[in-house]
Amino acid sequence: MARDSSGISFTAFYTGEVWRRHGLSVPFLAQPEGRLLYLAGRPMERLAEALLGGGNETMLLQRHLIIDRILEKAVLEEGFTQIVEIACGLSPRGTLMAKRFAAQDLHYIEADLPGMAARKRALLAAAGELDDRHRVIDIDILAQDVPISLEAVFGGQLDPARKTLVITEGLVNYFDHPTISGFWTRLATVLRQFPAGTYLTDLYPNFQWHRSVRVARVFKAALARATRSRVSLHFGNEEAIKAGFHDAGFAITRVHLPESYYGVLPIPVQRTPSLVRVVENRVHAPVGQTA
After folding, report:
1. Confidence class of residue 224 from pLDDT cuts 50, 70 and 90?
2. What range does the domain containing 267 cover?
């Protein structure tokens, strides 16, 4: 595949509008492109809801709220004070978390490709939301030996004394496995320079038994054309997910199922099992704990 992720920014507008419509965003991140894409996708969403009891919008909300809960616990219970959200798009998380955890001296760094990062930076600056603790920076996770590469950004723009947590939401399935696992390996390496390093991501597995996989294949083909990316489903079961991240260099991996959060978080419940998974990875295993 072409090693180019610029087309993925296309979907940032859609997801931003989903969060806004469900009260999870902030007004100044609303964009006209998001409204148009959301309305265009409603017929497919209604069909998925009728057939499966929940569609892509349902899983977007599930993954977003689960990631938020894990992040909150990491800050409050483990003392993580440096968050990097890669492929941040129009995510409201940086604005909301920087304010919520100001007393914990949380530093929130949003990162994206230069075009999307510039747009996000302008929106936040106009709203007066940028300061030393909340920044937007350029990054290209596929590039190497350039100022915006993963290694250059983490080595030059982050505080090595802080416990650091990295988030990628809605990113993994836009890459084939060799490409994304290469990023995971490099990320695990750079995270080891911090006192503690955690990586949170969502992914859509290739569960052959799951009714949604057939629908997902149709959806991913259309999305791949729109984003000029190869949309891929990864891993056949939870054990394969854990093995994949272990091979990339993470010491501990925990797979979170949305069903475990029904009645715990205000996430939508669907009639069929959810296809999305939130994966929590750590580069340092606590004493006495194994994968």
Report:
1. very low
2. 6-282
